[in-house]
Amino acid sequence: MSAALFLVIAVLTVLGAFTVVVARSPVYSALGLVGTLFFIAVLFLGLDAQLLGFLQIIVYAGAIVVLFLFVIMLLNLQAELETLSAPALVAAAALGGLALAGLVAFGVARTPLGVPVLAEGFGNTVPVAERLFTSYLLPFELTSVLLLVAIIGAVVIGKKRLA
Amino acid sequence: MTAPAPLAWYLVLSAVLFGIGVVGVLARRNLIVVFMAIELMLNAVNLTFVTFARAHQSMDGHVIVFFVMAVAAAEAAVGLAIILQLFRARATVNADEVTTLRW
Amino acid sequence: MLADLLIDVARVVFIILLAVQLVAFGGFCERKISALIQDRIGANRASIFGFAGMGLINTFVADPIKWLLKEDVRIVGTDRLLHFWAPVVSLVMALVPFAVIPFGNELVVGDRHINLQAAPLGVGVLYVLAMVSLGVYGVVLGGWASNNRWALLGSVRGSAQMISYEIAMGLALVGAVLVYGTLDLQEMVHAQGRLLGGWLPAWGIIYQPLGFLLFFVSGVAESKRVPFDLPESESELIAGYFTEYSGAKHFMFFMADFVEVVLVSALVTTLYFGGWQIPFLAPDGFHFPGGGILPVAPLLVTLLGVVAFTVKMLFFTILQIVLSWTLPRFRYDQLMRLGWKGLLPIGLANVVVTAGLILWLGGHA
Hints:
- The structure holds three protein chains of three kinds.
- By secondary structure, chain A is mostly helical.
- Chain A is built from six helices and no strands.
- In chain A, α1 packs antiparallel against α2 (26-46) and α2 runs antiparallel to α3 (50-75).
- Chain A is globular.
- Chain A starts with a helix and ends in a 5-residue tail after the last helix.
- Helix content of chain B is 76%, strand content 0%.
- Chain B has three helices and no strands.
- Chain B is elongated, with a radius of gyration of 17 Å.
- Chain C starts with a helix and ends with a helix.
- Chain C has one domain (73-361).
- By secondary structure, chain C is mainly α.
- Chain C is globular, with a radius of gyration of 22 Å.
- Chains in contact: A-B, A-C.
- Chains A and B meet through α1, α2, α3, α4 and α5 of A and α1, α2 and α3 of B.
């Protein structure tokens, strides 16, 4: 992905992130999140991570944020009048976020990162599958158990309790 | 693929996104928006992993992102169920109004 | 360089035009076939100077004019932005998966080999799933932005149905991916050109009959056609999640419905019925099992492939239309039960059995 295209996508991503944090209506925040996730998927594609790019859209943008939107619609959350907490806390948070981002960016921008030529098939399904079923087999199996537990947990926690 | 943008820029972008996520978690009161800011932070980390995977030509970064996505999905499901139950009990998702255990 | 760009544009334009023409033709077929099934004549009143063209004037001239010129009703108290973008998202996400559908073999012009597929992605199947899962937003936002609690109800039902059947669709696709060993749709179609035992074309339906049924049913459910059209329920919720849309926006939702029908047909054709493959047709001519060879010019072979693909897509589109007008509608709990307790276990069993058979027979097709 050329530098110019990266700048455009990066600006759009940051705009989406701002929308998540700043928007009054939770629905707009959710849509900002979809935009951010979509542009991050585009960045993944630019980094030759094809499988992850499309998985990002399927899992994050297409399922997790839909879940968020369901909950927002179910609870019928309208646009809020006061979105932020106490001004002192907001100022501290903004400063903290800025400092964190600045620190990481400073440290990172000085790292020499080469861009090596990639092997054939980098970022596709086969290498990921090879690793998932050999080196990372235990985390893979644990993740499937985790997902099962999460499904059962979500169903149990979300049930209407007979008080 | 043509030569990508300098990879350090990707890392700077992910740092910025992480910072925005932190501000979102600390400054917003609506629990669902806080949750979304957490997802934003997770995605910033994913971007970092993929960038380093590209820089070191190692697919292990991709596998880790795969796991992060799975865990984030599980976390979102359970977290939203909790928020739903909270709303049923207190009729609010404002973090300031659920600071006490009873009444 | 410019020639490459023009070729890319031409491929994209071709597949979009093909899809949209089939949508228009499908609209006409729907009116006439539903009329045949219900023992009536169907739309034939609109005419130009007395020429009614058997309903063609009605579908292709009168309806578009009506839809585009109808007043765009503005609703009070809703989100104008979301109200505008919901149908757009629905339509765009239904059209975009056509980019990875291969509509022909390689076109050899001079020394240029043009792959007749708009976007030769290595992960084509995932791309289709991704765009279909983004299509849910059109439904979700359409209902939310309508300031109408029944539209909201329709949209919540619709989106829950869509995400449930996406899982069954994904599992059916996993079966197909296991058999062909690739996520690239053009590779899958190429792999279906072989002959089993010397005479049977190795189409997907032979390898994955259950997968085909699973995919077809979940595709119909995903596009919210009857018998799965409770979110829309023309006889109950007026128009469900797009009740409050009129004019061009309604047209976009309606068209998105049809585009998904054509998309499901295209996917079924590509994965399970050989795509653009004609039995016994190799790039240089027909090779019959008896031993006869009928040489055919390569350009004509490619053209025949494109025509075969279109005919197969048309067959499945008409099949879905006939299905729509024959079966009664599922109740919502029956629908969800079918998706989660019926198709999901069957899909998993399909994957396990397919994987087992592949291991036993040693390697994929």
